[in-house]
Amino acid sequence: MAEDWGDIFKNLQMSANEEAIFKGDYEREFVHKQIFAEEFEDIGEDNEDYIENMLKEEEKIAIAGLTNILPLRTLSLPWLLEARRTAIYNIVYIGGCNGVRKITVYTAMIYVDRYLSSVPKKPISPIAKLLAISCLYLACEQFEEYECQISTSNYIGSIMSMKYNIITQFKWIVTFVTPIQFVKYFLSRFCRDLSRKLYAKSITVEIIMSTIGDVRLMSVSAFVVGAAATLLASNSNILTHEMIKDEINALPKKWLIPIDEVCSCYDRLLETNMHRLDIS
């Protein structure tokens, strides 16, 4: 059975919180603030203007040629999967042990996948760990409200050099959209049972985090993954494709939502997350 990197990260994050009581004041304060932010602060907004801005960001990334084509590249370059596995291991373990947020780890994996989608065909497995740490460092700069001191001071020169390489490869675009940023809006539309809302919010993010090990799902648009994950967590019953289509068709038509992709993503997420769902 493939590793559920989302669960692994959550357990490491919880361990970091427990171990923080034995650390210094700074480390303890940082981890506790992170846990509070993770549990109680909403990411994103629940209005249509916000969603349209996120969709424009996704479009800008596509126009810049920074889409995730890793599933296609791995067919002819299988060493990319080894490099990715090394990267995800280091991002999850270093991020979890340092108490960073889920959106930070998810964004770091977006950086890894987009970088591996465009690097030359020469194997980079020997520097996959450095790539992982540099992507995590860059993601921390985007999403960590409090300064995160990742224990990499001995390699800071190499990390800064790799980070510059990554940013250059991305044409200085570092704002990538994640499914987590759509959750607040989709909960406002799909979760009609108010008693289920807190559960649905937590489980939706867990479902999204479970995708970081799946190369195919990580190449699906953030909007689609966010919609499918929220639909799955918001309902106590498994939805048919017709029911999913009804929910999506109630959203603004101008968004041109690929309903078949949402249905396919929903099925895949249901298959891989049955163990965590309160659903029948």
Give structural notes.
Residues 82-156 form the Cyclin N-terminal domain. It comes from Solanum lycopersicum. Keywords: Cell cycle, Cell division. The protein is mainly α. The protein has 2 domains: 5-41 and 67-169, Cyclin A, domain 1 (Orthogonal Bundle), CATH 1.10.472; 179-276, Cyclin A, domain 1 (Orthogonal Bundle). The protein is built from 13 helices and no strands. It has helices at residues 5-19, 25-40, 48-63, 70-76, 79-97, 102-116, 128-143, 156-169, 183-190, 197-209, 222-234, 241-249, 259-273. It is globular. The two termini are 23 Å apart. The model has no long low-confidence stretch (mean pLDDT 87).
Largest sheet: none
Shape: globular
Number of domains: 2
Count of DSSP strands? 0
Span between termini: 23 Å
How big a fraction of the residues is strand? under 5%
- Uncertain residue ranges: none
Mean pLDDT figure: 87
- The number of distinct helices, counting runs of at least 4 residues, comes to 13
The quaternary structure here is single chain
